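Protocol step 4 of 5: obtain the predicted structure for the target chain.
Materials: sequence only (see below). No template structures provided, no constraints applied. The aim of this step is simply to have a reference model before the mutagenesis design in step 5. Sequence pasted as it appears in the construct record:
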Amino acid sequence: MKERTYAAIDIGSNAVRLLIKRTDRDCDTCDLKKELLVRVPLRLGFDVFARGEVSDRKRGDLVRLMKAYRQLMRIYDVDRMRACATSAMRDARNGQEIIREIKKETGIDIEIIPGSEEARIVYNNHIERGDDASGRYLYVDVGGGSTELNYIDNGALVASGSFNIGTVRILTGKVKPGEWDSLHRFLEEKVGHGEDLAIIGSGGNINKLYKMATVKDRDRDSFPVEELSRMYHVMAPMGVEERMRRYGLREDRADVIIPAAEIFLNIASVTGARRIIVPTIGVADGIIDGLYLADQKDKEKEKKEPKEK
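Step 4 output (structure tokens):
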């Protein structure tokens, strides 16, 4: 089997990412190798959650960015790709109109996926890790517009949930009180409480928090919830500019990092989890894992067909 190159475009509420990965030639079970990751902070959610639609300026920026991503995918000889838009585009009144424009201008088909599909995509990330082979794990992907949860017990997916609680929604005051109630009810009924549970954190904010932590287990890519709490209480009283100056953060990270910490700490408080594993994976990785798994299934089917004849 020749090497194959996969691409994923993740149009989130805070940033738009292009991820490209490649398999090795004649390798059935090898890991996917990252070739390129581009992240552009378009911050669509600040428009959508405040005014209900994407502004003309950001709409034009998104179209231009998709044109650039199309050229990069051609340069990298991408065989298969999938483009998904999540919470902000789900809520935008002009979301479908923008999707049609991008298709016309670039040929890229973008799916505006529901929260349940986003949660399933995040779960696909587990094929890159062996940590969930035994034990209890809660995959938590915190985005700008929503938080996706996948509860795994001894390698089996038990429950998934998607909640309109995200960093940009919190900053713009657009999280409905009932969403927190729904999140807590899901955790209490589906996950339960216990210190044996480990959170697997996904998203740029938890990755940054892990890198900034002074207490961590580098061998296991994890850090204690207690350390996250300490960091939160140090940074939360600061303004955005002070966080940028003291921690070398970009502006588009310095503001959302605090609500992200709040979401993780809230989930840890309800579940009793004391450890957060940070494997530096996200929605884009899950998209590519899904494409790769589909190819593997097709290959297995091809192998069986001659025998059946």
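Step 4 remarks: The mean pLDDT is 91. The radius of gyration is 20 Å.
Proceed to step 5.
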